[in-house]
Amino acid sequence: MGQSLPSALRELLLVSDGVVDADGTDVVWSAEHIGLTNAEFRGSADFRMLYMPFDALVFFGDNGGGDQFAAVRTPERDDVFVWDHENDSRTWVAARLETYLRGALSRPGEDWYR
Questions:
Q1: Which of 6, 27, 61, 105 is at 20 to 30 A from 38, Cα to Cα?
Q2: Nearest Cα to 6, choosing from 61, 86, 66?
Q3: Alpha carbons 104 and 55: distance in angstroms, whole number
Q4: Where do the domains of the chain lie?
Q5: Contact between residue 83 and residue 67 where contact means Cβ atoms under 8 Å apart
Q6: H helix and E strand count, the chain
Q7: CA nearest 25: which of 105, 84, 114?
Q8: What's the confidence (pLDDT) of residue 2?
Q9: Per-residue pLDDT tens digits for 14-71
């Protein structure tokens, strides 16, 4: 990606290269998936025309239904947001990665955060 990851996400990836819930949803993607997806989002001309810029975010997981979760990269913050792929909204989900993981892993369904 050519950029640093938020510290909590970096620390998690050093211990586990991704996190999958009981339903098989990639709550946290592998480091490779994170790099590829973020490069695609930032490099796609179609995405630049359709969506607000993604530069401040680093996507790291999804809900299995198309929405994706992101950490704030610039300025680095501990907050986690969800990006709704249908309307391009970015909504606060959790104050920290740990809180996000607890919610995602303890509540079933793709809309656990709503």
A1: 105
A2: 61
A3: 24
A4: 7-106
A5: yes
A6: 4, 6
A7: 105
A8: 63
A9: 999 999 999 999 999 999 999 999 999 999 999 999 999 999 999 999 999 999 999 9
CA distance 95 to 102: 12
Q: Are 112 and 27 a contacting pair, CB within 8 Å?
A: no
pLDDT of residue 1: 54
Q: Identify whether the C-beta of residue 60 lies closer than 8 Å to the C-beta of residue 71.
A: yes
Sign of CA pseudo-dihedral 98, 2, 61, 11:
negative
**Measured CA angle at 42 (ends 82, 96), to 5 deg:** 30
Tokens 């490069």 locate to 39
Task: Say if residue 108 is preceded by a cis peptide, omega within 30 of 0.
Answer: no
Token output for 59: 């996507």
> Which residue, chain included where needed, has tokens 């819930």?
21
Q: Report how far apart, in Å, the C-alpha atoms of 62 and of each of 17, 45, 59, 86 are.
A: 15, 22, 8, 14
> Cβ distance 19 to 86 under 8 Å?
no
75 contacts 86 by C-beta, under 8 angstroms: no
